[in-house]
Amino acid sequence: MTAPSQHDSLADPPADSPAVRPSFDVDRARRETPGTREVTHLNNAGAALAPAVVLETMVGHLQLEAQVGGYEAAAAVGAASEAVYGSVAQLIGAAPHEIALAESATRAWDMAFYAFGLGPDDVVVTGESEYSSNVLAFLHRARRTGATVRLVPNDQAGQIDVAALERTLDELGTRAALVSLTHVPTSNGLVSPAAAVGEVTRRAGVPFLLDACQSVGQLAVDVTTIGCDLLSATGRKYLRAPRGTGFLYVSDRIRDRLDPPFIDLHAAEWVAEDRYTLRDDARRFESWEAGVAARLGLGAAVDYALGWGMDAIEARVGALAARLREQLATVPGVVVRDTGEHRCGIVTFDVAGRDADDVVAQLRRARVNTSVARAASARLDLGRRGVGDVVRASVHYYNTDAELDLLISLLSDLVAGRAG
Ligand SMILES: Cc1ncc(COP(=O)(O)O)c(C=O)c1O
After folding, report:
1. How far, in Å, is the centroid of ligand 1 from the Cα of 104?
2. Domain 5-49+309-415, what fold?
3. Residue of 217, 243, 252, 386 with fewest CB within 10 Å of its CB?
4. Under a CB-based contact definition with an 8 Å cutoff, are residues 57 and 296 in contact?
5. Residue 4 C-alpha to ligand 1 middle, in angstroms?
6. What is the pLDDT of residues 285-341, one digit of tens each?
7. CATH no. of 57-307
C-alpha cells in the first residue's frame, strides 16, 4: 500500500512547534509506528495504531502456536503471560493480583457490575457522561431486579456535579449500591473529576466503579489517587494494544463482596461434587480461554506506554488536542462541543450544514481517519445538550502539527465547498 503524495511529507514529520512539547521524541514514535506512514490517524479513541513491538509480539506468538500447538505455545510463554498482570498493575498503581484480563472493556465492566447483588431497594448512582452500554446494563438490571438508577446532574462546566453527588449519597444512605462513572466519555473531550468522586464515595462507604476505557493510555490513571474500587479499560484505544483485549481492576477492599456473574474452571475450583471455591484473586472474573497472542500484545503495549511515561504522554496528547481545538475555532461553521474543566485527547465538533458521517467520509478519502460519535448513543450527554451527531478527532502522541494542519485545511475546504 502506498500513501498519497500529501502524506509523504508526514512519513518523516518535521519537529513539532515548540508549543507542543518539543521534548517528546515524535520522530521516534512515528518510526516505531508503521501505520503513521499510511494514514493520518485521528481515531485513537476508536482504536489507535499499534507500535511495531506489539505487532511483532503478536505475530511471533501466532507463529509459535502454528509451529508447536496452542497449548504448548502458551506453556512456553507462561512467564511472559504472567508478566502482563504486573505491567497492567504498574500502569494503574494496583497490585498484580487485583487485575483480571478480559476480551473487551465492556466484558470487564459487566463482570464487575453484574456481580453486585441488586434488589428492589438498591439504587445505582451515575452521571450524564455514562457510556451507553453501561446505561443499557443499568436498565437491564433495573428491569430484572427492581433496582433504580439515579442520575446525578452535571455542573455548570458540564461535568458531574460532585456536590450534588455527595447530597445524593447522603440522602440514599445504605440504598446506594454503587456509583458508576465514566472517566472520559466516548463522545466528549471532557475528563470527569474522578478523584473528587472517589473522595465522596470513600467518605460515604459506597463502592465506586470507574469506566476508564478512554482514559487509560492517554492520562496518568492511578487507582489509589482516584480512590475507585473497580476500574475497567480496553487495550485497543489509547493503550495501542490489539483489539479483543481489556482488563478489570478489582481492589482487595471489594473482591469478596462481589459474586462473579459467571464462573468456570479457571475462576473457581470444583472441590467436591456439590461445592466450589472461588479463586482468591481478581482472576475469578476471568474465563479460562483467551487469545494468548493478544494478551502478550497488551503486555507489550503497556510496557511501551510505560517506557514513554504516562505523564509525558498525557502532556503531549493534551497539548495537541488544545492546539486542535484552537484551530477548529477559527474554521467558519465549526463548533467544538467538548465540555468540562479538564479536557483530553478527544476533540468533538460539528460542521454547520454538514452531516457528521459525510464529514468523516470526506476526510477518509484524504486518508485522514476520524469517527462519528452518535447522539443516539449519548442520550444523556449530546442528547440532553441538544447536540446532534458529532465528528470525533482523537489525537495521540504520534500525531504531528502537520497532521492537525491537514485536518484543518480539509475542513476549511469542505466548508468553503471546495471538496466533495
Ligand atoms: C467510555 C467507554 N466505555 C466503554 C467502551 C466499550 O469498550 P469495548 O468496546 O472495548 O467494550 C467504550 C468504547 O468506545 C467507551 O468509549
Report:
1. 8
2. Aspartate Aminotransferase, domain 1 (3.90.1150)
3. 386
4. yes
5. 32
6. 999 999 999 999 999 999 999 999 999 999 999 999 999 999 999 999 999 999 999
7. 3.40.640.10
